[in-house]
Amino acid sequence: MMVQTPILALFMADLLGLLLLIPAGLFALQVLRHWDPSSGHARQLRLEKRTHLVAAALGLVFVVQLLALPLFVHAVDRMALQIVGAMCAVGTLNANPWGLPALLLRISLFFLAAAWLLMHRIDKRAPDYPLIRAKYGLVLLIVPLAALTAGIQLAFFLQLDPDVITSCCGSLFSQGSESVAAHMAGLPALPTMIALYGTLGLALAAAAVYLRWRRGLLLFGILATLSFPVAIAAIVAFLSLYVYEHP
Predict the structure, then answer these.
(1) What is the pLDDT of residues 122-169, one digit of tens each?
(2) Are 101 and 158 contained in the same domain?
């Protein structure tokens, strides 16, 4: 294992996050079982008081998780200089079987944390907290995912050996390969550009319509979700070429 400041920061973020998420998960169970805004029972009053503290702690944890994804990518990209055969973060992630799963879990946790923060912001605006069950149900999904992400990430960094030769980007994205990445690399540039700018343009237009007339939120969500895989394909198919081929 190679000890670096970003890696230690990721470990600390995961450890402290789990220390807060596990009690929050237990509190989420109480909310799902006993939350009743129409009740004046003492238990309901205790839940209402505690939910503010728990929500504040969860907000802090999820903001840190948002920052953990770019920090993880930055860490593995820097480590490419020390891995034999690695030219960038992709080579580092391919150095052992845990690299790509760790990245995918980080991405999943990023989007779930962002979804919770958005739900919490909307929920605070209503006096009866209409989304409280949904957002604490999401917490129950995030807790095991965060634990799994921390474990897979730990396995990745512990088993990272700088003396093991890894595959470079060229072999992973070559058109002769049968991987998904290779198929994306073989996509024609012009249609991929049209798909990227088209989906982004439609998503921005839908967002403008919602902000102006408060309509079309579902359409905006669908277009924003669709734009993510299109953007990934575009990065592999043509955007990365401008970065690596630029003098």
Answers:
(1) 888 887 888 899 999 999 999 999 999 999 999 999 988 877 777 766
(2) yes
Percent of the chain with pLDDT over 90: 44
Helix ranges (DSSP H) in the chain: 5-34, 42-79, 89-93, 99-124, 132-158, 169-173, 180-185, 189-213, 217-234, 240-244
Quote the pTM value. 0.82
pLDDT tens digit sequence for 208-233: 998 888 888 888 889 988 998 898 88
Domain count, the chain: 2
Q: What is the DSSP letter of 173?
A: H
- Are residues 136 and 216 both part of a single domain? no
- A 10 A CB-CB count for 201 gives 12
Two tokens at 31? 């909310």
Say how far apart CA 224 and CA 203 lie, in whole Å.
6
**Amino acid occupying residue 229:** P
Residue 63: how many CB atoms within 10 A of its CB? 13
State whether 41 and 117 are in the same domain.
yes
Same domain, 74 and 84: yes
pLDDT at 178: 61
Question: What is the enclosing helix (H) or strand (E) of 241?
Answer: helix 240-244
Whether residues 137 and 190 fall in one domain:
no
Same domain, 187 and 157: no
**Residues 51 and 164 occupy one common structural domain:** yes
